[in-house]
Amino acid sequence: MQKVSERAHHRKSVVLSSGGVDSTTVMAIAKAEGYEIYSLSFRYGQRHSVEVAAAEKVAAFFGAMKHLVLDIDLRIMGASALTDEIEVPKGRDERSMNTGIPVTYVPARNTIFLSYALAWAEVLGASDIFIGVNAVDYSGYPDCRPEYIAAFEEMANLATKAGVEGKTRIRIRTPVIHMTKAEIIGRGIALGVDYGMTHSCYDPAADGKACGLCDSCLLRKRGFREAGIEDPAQYMG
Amino acid sequence: MQKVSERAHHRKSVVLSSGGVDSTTVMAIAKAEGYEIYSLSFRYGQRHSVEVAAAEKVAAFFGAMKHLVLDIDLRIMGASALTDEIEVPKGRDERSMNTGIPVTYVPARNTIFLSYALAWAEVLGASDIFIGVNAVDYSGYPDCRPEYIAAFEEMANLATKAGVEGKTRIRIRTPVIHMTKAEIIGRGIALGVDYGMTHSCYDPAADGKACGLCDSCLLRKRGFREAGIEDPAQYMG
Fold first, then answer.
1. Domain A2-227 carries which CATH code?
2. Staple B86 to which of A182, B58, B81, B184, CB 3.0 to 4.6 Å?
3. Which CATH number fits domain B2-85+105-199: 3.30.450.20, 3.60.130.10, 3.40.50.620, 3.90.1150.10?
4. Which pTM does this prediction carry?
């Protein structure tokens, strides 16, 4: 018995971390399930590189075995408000956030992130890749939907040694995919997450303060409000 | 009629190019089918960066609209003879090449390459991604099998705007996947390919000459021999 439970407590997982609320909660869930955490973040020419610093704090908080930050250049791929000089939309109501695909969408971003996570998982012998995608608040992003994640998992198991040799089935874990922001925050608080570490804003000030008006800030603020918890983020003005 | 055929002649394709025999032949096939070529190569810390120079020559040869070279660091992902200081195997017979997964396998490499190609295809509005994978000579690589490619295509159409909005179905094209090396070379010669531009060696000399003994050189040499065509590559010694 001891042996089985020890082994369960040493399963490795790669956790994609943006330093935001969703991926931080996902890391808390992976930790609570007994996984060793290998935290993976990206610097991809985004304006909000302050999120990379947040991801580092989060990895340290959860005692990650390793925190890896990969530099990838997505700007070369063309237009998106997260990487180019297109204006980040501010003060939108929820209905317009959920209409069509937002300007902040980066082509194939989750596919690229998950592909790197898959490579690292194979090297580490990790069975699980955790990602904080959310189909509720980000319904406009094609690569946040459950059917996309299922297809990636299928592909991942055909792409890798483990899949071919039938050793370890890779699982893409999306524990917050169907939760509202308030539910995500509630779960995190129950697991002891300090959301003061996290960063959500698409368009922060030079000092790292959040704008409070972009889609991501608005969703965060509403989530804390609905969860009945005070948002520890620092907002401008 | 004219209009349809004109349109057919301006379909865009992203072609993954290593500067080797297979991907160069694939580019010739894409060109012959009337596609505009957007050539995509990677510098990923491999020892044989001379292949990047070959890919540039190949893109110019086929009049590519653009040739993009992305820097990605796969070394950070761990061990492989193509990126680390592990010895590249030399002088192996074909049977041992086809036993299990070779040391030259890079975890999830084709998945990462195809993910970037997918991002670029979405930005360009390209419908087809061409890749020179081969299930005959590289039977040990999980990500060279038709079932892997089919799964990637399925995932790609769920990952992207085009897929969600039902506009353009992305196709992953693998025209040489079932060909022997001799057949690939024969097809390329018929399409006017000058294989003097290409580079195949896993372990070239400083002056770019091929070793003649690694798996890739051996497969290339046998391919030209079986095709009855003189190999224009320059070998050491």
1. 3.40.50.620
2. B81
3. 3.40.50.620
4. 0.88
